[in-house]
Fold GNAT family N-acetyltransferase.
Amino acid sequence: MTTEPAYTLHTTLDGVTPGQLQGFFVDWPNPPSPDTFHRVLAGSYRVVLAVSGGQVIGFVQAISDGVLTAYIPLLEVLPEWQGRGVGRALMTRMQDELRHLYAVDLGCEDNLVPFYEGLGMRRGNLMFTRRYERQSGAVEG
């Protein structure tokens, strides 16, 4: 009997380096560098990381006022780990981390609606602006 490699969930960036944040943002035309990605996570209100063998294999982050509301802008799992329950585990833990708040919102593609509905979330509307030239998060000079 073979077992899949185990992973653990972490709620801090303690000991996590940019080098452990490789392989995310698949198909993004202008993805953030691992250093920028580390800064994104460090600036989050809450973060949950799935780690296996010292490598981050998935993450979810939340930004919040810490009083009433939070927004979950990013949830990603490395392609080779998708379909194994990692995303569900990350979101379940994040929902627990944010249970003290009135509202937790996120936006997603239509094909992901059933995933989030399965976690008890409801469909709503989202308005957005995207500046794809800024997608990498690079600082303008």
Q: What stands out?
A: The chain has a mean pLDDT of 93. The first helix runs from residue 34 to 42.
